[in-house]
Q: What sequence folds into this?
């Protein structure tokens, strides 16, 4: 296996900087869109053969150092008793949002083999197809991000319902987060059992919180999730909009801390400690720039890493729809070539 990515997760020396990209399998690729024309998003997630095909599409095309399973962070919800649908051009919609005592009490901790068997089978299929060429990453939402979805009923600008529950009924909030965290521990461990070589935790909405609210209301639950899977495979703790308190984020644990583009990589690494690996952190919009600018920005980030073991190159968030595929391929090539020269 090309284990460069896994060695970087463990802060071991590598011959070059490994790179993979969030949403590397997605709507910017024509191969993906051909499948999407025939199936809904949830159908793609729930059909192991399709999820496997989509997962593998960028592996050979981009020459990335890790694959990530094609899935969605909301897949555990139905097993918890949450009714989920994806509205056309509107994203996920929760039909029975959790707002009170009875809603929280009705939630159940999932049994992954019964509730998401399609995901586990997709992981097994991908592992067989990869034949150990590169590692496969599994993933889940962090407790706060998943809680926000089921309380808000979908996306949100101000997270009013979630914060109202968090501030106004802290004990109910704790019970909700405990239930969600228990589900996520089971969900992620099942992915590892199925063959995932690493896990990324997505706290995409953590940036909506103040540092003190994150520390009080969220950090203990994210820490429990990571502790519930630590030691089995490398764990990446990724969040966005959290540069003001990335050190607090890092205290949740994990082998790797993922950072977005709103903070310099060298500054973030110093704050989380050089004994931990770091992942990031190119602004995804740079992939719309001329190749010379892409190369310059890649070189800038690699220079910030200063050849230190434990850097995994990635975007600060997912690839944007409409991104030129050739630019994505060029990015991967630049990371490999420029980092190998500096070793």
A:
């Amino acid at each position: 296996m090309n284990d460069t990515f896994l060695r970087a997760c463990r802060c071991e020396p590598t011959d070059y900087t490994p790179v993979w990209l969030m949403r590397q399998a997605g709507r910017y690729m024509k191969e993906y869109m051909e499948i999407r024309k025939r199936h809904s998003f949830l159908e793609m997630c729930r059909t192991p053969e399709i999820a496997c095909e989509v997962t593998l599409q960028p592996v050979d095309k981009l020459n990335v150092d890790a694959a990530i399973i094609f899935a969605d962070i909301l897949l555990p919800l139905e097993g918890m008793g949450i009714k989920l649908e994806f509205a056309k051009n509107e994203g996920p919609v929760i039909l029975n949002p959790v707002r009170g005592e009875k809603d929280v009490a009705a939630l159940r901790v999932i049994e992954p083999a019964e509730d998401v068997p399609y995901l586990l089978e997709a992981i097994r299929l991908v592992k067989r197809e990869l034949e150990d060429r590169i590692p496969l990453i599994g993933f889940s939402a962090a407790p706060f991000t998943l809680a926000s979805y089921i309380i808000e009923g979908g996306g949100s600008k101000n997270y009013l319902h979630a914060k109202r529950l968090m501030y106004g009924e802290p004990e109910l909030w704790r019970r909700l987060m405990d239930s969600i965290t228990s589900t996520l521990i089971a969900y992620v461990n099942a992915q590892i059992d199925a063959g995932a070589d690493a896990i990324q935790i997505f706290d995409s909405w953590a940036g909506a919180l103040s540092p003190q609210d994150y520390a009080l209301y969220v950090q203990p639950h994210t820490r429990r999730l990571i502790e519930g899977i630590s030691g089995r495979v490398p764990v990446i703790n990724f969040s966005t909009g959290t540069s003001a308190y990335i050190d607090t984020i890092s205290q949740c644990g994990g082998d790797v801390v993922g950072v977005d583009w709103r903070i310099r990589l060298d500054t973030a690494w110093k704050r989380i400690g050089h004994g931990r690996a770091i992942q990031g952190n190119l602004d995804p919009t740079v992939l719309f720039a001329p190749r010379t600018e892409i190369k310059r920005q890649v070189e800038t980030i690699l220079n910030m890493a200063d050849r230190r073991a434990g850097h995994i190159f990635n975007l600060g968030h997912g690839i944007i729809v409409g991104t030129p595929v050739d630019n994505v391929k060029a990015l991967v090539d630049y990371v490999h070539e420029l980092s190998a020269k500096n070793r």
